[in-house]
Amino acid sequence: LSSPLWGLALRVPAWKRETAYSLVGVWPSLTLRRPAMGPGSLSHDPQVEAAYAADRLVHFQSSLKLYVDARRQMAQLPQRLPQLCIPTLVLAAGDDRIASAQATQSWYPLIGAERKQLIMYPGYSHEILHEVGKDAVFKDLFEWLKDFREPVMAR
Questions:
Q1: Residue 90: beta bridge partners?
Q2: CA torsion angle for 75, 78, 84, 88 (degrees, to 10)?
Q3: Does residue 149 carry a pLDDT above 90?
């Protein structure tokens, strides 16, 4: 898992939260502007930031349904994470302005897998696989996979 969204790093104003929960049942597709992310929010690599800014599919709207469903799923983490019983590697950005690094650290111990590992990357932004220091992330990922000997099969 790469910088999992187990909590929001950004603060959602109360009026937006209330609007979302009040109207999602009647107008789930209503979109509200999400906060603009400053430089370095995704990556410290200027090319990654430029590609994001130039991507015509990137928009700054979020539907009420997306927000409410995401919050509901995050609320289910205490029940769901203990059910995650396959080997799990969590790679998380330490300076994530999107997914809360604190939430990742708090929820990680609940993962039910015997084999699990959390690696935090201090100073990294959300897109750790596209960061300036991505070589360290890939090195950790490959090391973890190299030591993995059990086949992954449905039981």
A1: 118
A2: 90
A3: no
Q: CA-CA distances (angstroms) from residue 84 to 112, 113, 148?
A: 5, 6, 17
* Per-residue model confidence as pLDDT tens digits over 109-123: 999 999 999 999 999
User: Model confidence over 52-85: pLDDT tens digits?
Assistant: 989 999 888 999 999 999 999 999 999 999 999 9
Write the CA distances from 113 to 44, 84, 90, integer angstroms.
32, 6, 12
Alpha-carbon separation of residue 148 from 104, 129, 136, 154 (angstroms): 23, 21, 19, 16
- The separation between the first and the last C-alpha atoms of the chain, rounded to the nearest angstrom, is 21
The total of other beta-carbon atoms located within 10 Å of residue 99's CB is: 19
